[in-house]
Design brief:
The protein is an alpha+beta fold and 391 residues long. The chain has ten helices and 13 strands. The strands form three sheets. Strands 1, 2, 3, 4, 5 and 6 form a six-stranded mixed sheet that branches. Strands 7-10-11-12-13 form a five-stranded antiparallel sheet, with no helix packed on it. A two-stranded antiparallel sheet has the order 8-9. Helix 2 crosses helix 3 and helix 4 packs across helix 5.
Length: 391
């Protein structure tokens, strides 16, 4: 009978007993037990050498494995994983190589097996949703401070039952987390204050990517808000994502998932204690956690402050000599005795108009195209792309 129909031990005992009766040849006996002749001879040889103990299942583990990972290295891997439970094998190896000098580092696949063996890998939820569309934002940064991104991570309640709205600002080239600040509400005044602080510490970027929500944008012409008008006055371009497409800012969204996992599960008791967690998370994210998109380099290795510092006073708004220049008063400008309404957000500022066709003008604020003006109808329409084009 085959080994798998009864226990392997019982089958081997019966096989040896039938062999000793000499009622069958080895070929016939092996055919009856549905095993190979080699297996039959090996079973008899183990019985003659070790007796009944030789019929017990034998370990397949080699006596010596030259490629086995030593205990000290396993302890190092477990130690870093315990401090950073979200780090995968590649990130763990990158951190270990930076901290310890040794030549015999294992492969990432070996580290993955160690984590699984030590019970340090949680079962991953299977995602069934469709793949997201690729981002379509214009700017692909090639150096630090060429593009920053900003967003409010989804609000959550802290232990005192108050909502916390984390404002996060990231340099898109290096993935450096410039700021993570918990607010009680996504207020315009609070966002102004945090950006002023970040500008004072890190300087000014070339462009800022945001969604179309307040306070970064509004329902006004070209989505202008008081905050985005300030950015434009500072010479910063706007790079807004498409409405309803958070994947256009996918790298920032991924950082939010890491932030939530590391700092808000569970959330801190009051909001001020939650801020302590944010402040501890930033240096870990910037200087300890390697990023696969950066070739397992930490953001701090790639980021440096911008050479453009925050000016003490806003620079004057200037336009090319062929532009018609108008001042916005109560949200509108004058055009041949007509009042042409734009937006109250620009009250007190200068706009420039460039004629692009007979009686048709593109309206600029600073370097950003914000609308199209037809002098025959005195109507203003929004440009096709809300984030506009530069002068």
């Amino acid at each position: 009978m085959p080994w798998h129909l009864v226990s392997a031990m019982d089958a081997r005992v019966q096989f040896v007993a039938d062999y000793q009766r000499e009622m069958f040849s080895m070929t016939e006996l092996c055919r009856r037990y549905a095993i190979s002749r080699q297996a039959g001879y090996e079973t008899i040889a183990r019985y003659r050498e070790l007796g009944p103990a030789g019929l017990a299942p034998q370990s397949r583990r080699p006596v010596h494995s030259p490629s086995a990972t030593d205990d000290d290295l396993v302890k190092l891997i477990k130690g870093v994983r315990t401090r950073h439970p979200s780090f995968g094998p590649k990130k763990l190896l990158r951190v270990l190589r930076r901290r310890h000098r040794r030549a015999d580092w294992p492969a990432a696949s070996t580290v993955a097996l160690i984590l699984k063996r030590e019970g340090l890998v949680a079962a991953r939820r299977v995602r069934t949703e469709h793949a997201a569309h690729l981002a379509t934002a214009r700017i692909v940064p090639t150096v630090a401070n060429e593009l920053w991104s900003v967003d409010f991570k989804g609000q959550f309640r802290t232990g005192d039952r108050r909502y916390c709205y984390p404002l996060t600002i990231v340099d898109r080239f290096s993935r450096y987390l410039l700021d993570c600040y918990g607010m009680l509400a996504p207020s315009e005044a609070g966002t102004f204050a945090r950006f002023r602080h970040v500008f004072e510490v890190f300087g000014l970027p070339e462009a800022i990517r945001s969604d179309n929500g307040v306070p970064f944008a509004s329902t006004a012409l070209a989505g202008l808000s008081h905050l985005s008008v300030w950015w434009l006055r500072l010479g910063i371009r706007l790079d807004r994502i498409r409405r309803g497409h958070p994947e256009d800012n996918g790298g920032h969204e991924y950082m939010h998932r890491v932030l939530k996992r590391e700092t808000a599960r569970p959330p801190g008791p009051p909001c001020r204690h939650q801020q302590v967690r944010f402040d501890e998370f930033r240096p870990t994210y910037n200087y300890v956690r390697p990023h696969e998109a950066l070739g397992q380099v930490v953001p701090g290795d790639l980021y440096g402050p911008s050479p453009r510092s925050l000016p003490a006073r806003l620079p004057p708004v200037e336009y090319p000599g062929h532009f018609e220049i108008r001042r916005v008063t109560d949200g509108a400008f004058s055009w041949h005795s007509h009042r042409v309404f734009l937006t109250h957000v620009l009250t007190g500022d200068l706009v420039g108009l460039e004629e692009v066709d007979d009686g048709v003008w593109t309206i600029y604020f600073c370097h950003q195209a914000i609308g199209r003006f037809d002098e025959r109808t005195t109507h203003v329409t929004e440009t096709h792309e809300r984030c506009g084009a530069s002068v």
